[in-house]
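Q: My collaborator sent me two sequences in one message, no labels, and asked for predicted structures for both. Can we handle them in order? The first one she listed is below.
A: Yes, handling them in the order given. First sequence, followed by its structure tokens:
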Amino acid sequence: MVERLAFRLAHWLKSEVPDHPYSVARLQFGFHLFLNTVLTLLVATILGLLFDNLRETMQVLFAFGLLRMISGGYHLKSASVCIVASAGVAALLPFVELSVFYITLLNIANMVLTIIFAPSRIEEQTRIPSKYFPALKVASTVLVASNFLFQSQLLAITWFIQAISLIRFPKKGGDSV
């Protein structure tokens, strides 16, 4: 759905402004990012209002996006699935109750995962040169470690889900998935 709409918008824009310096592929990529973001926010807002936890839902999206921006992670194959999964998880996580013990356990797990795997799968997703990837690892680890100060159950579980998406398993032949 999102892919087709981005494709149509890119072709429409290029036909309306044929001298535009961006290629159809680049326009399509931009529309895809824009639509993915807007639709995720829209669906999450609707779910947050329905579940009466809009503030917490938006906090989850912000925290998830912030860590994802500097750490990378696995991408779902379909934008539509990504929108539904992201919005659904963001609206449901505020219902998870954690004790201080489990918050601390998740904080430790988040640090270990970011130290080992961050940044992950960002080579084709960012314009940041690879020489700065060690700084992204440090930034990711410092960010998740900040929850030792906040002791937020919402941050602990949100960042755990994002940190899990960093894991790369070796495939046959030595490359990682």
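Q: And the one she listed second?
A: Here it is, processed independently of the first:
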Amino acid sequence: MTVEANIKPANLGLAYATAGTLAVVVGPSGAGKDTLMNLAARYFAGRPDVHFVRRVITREGDAGNEDHKSVSDADFDAMQRAGAFAISWEAHGLKYGIPAAVRDELALGHLVIANGSRSVLDRFQTAFPRLKVINVTARREVLAERLMARGRESREDVLKRLERSSLTVQGSYDIADIDNSSTLEEAERAIISVLEALIGK
């Protein structure tokens, strides 16, 4: 099931705090987190107790490898004022929102999986006390190859970006690291294993 955003705020009761778990998937560009999330969503399709969040983003609907709800900046701001998001943030000139409706699914004890960002994990932890961080990584040389294959940056720019970035998550979080340097099948099995262990936990 996909959690959608709406203008009407979800139930803001505190039950969700001690019920289900929110798993936030993070990782550097080129690690393949979107691909792994899509594979996991296909694996768990039809499970009523597992939900993949459809984020609200201020970018075109056909941009990137993520099924998201595309809105304008004005619409995003209106939704935020109406309480439509459990958490929101800005990065790279875009605005991202996690629908407040996830609280209703968590209150039922379900597992909710969201695409997140390492830069705002503190906000996720505050909003969702039962939080699992899944950090998708790959060796730097693998990341460099994948990023250069996109053709968006020069080799020099890619290498500089990787030098500045960290492959680890900083902070006191419950973290599962998944190395996606080898075959996609291995990484897929790894993320599914982590998520299965969280169901009903």
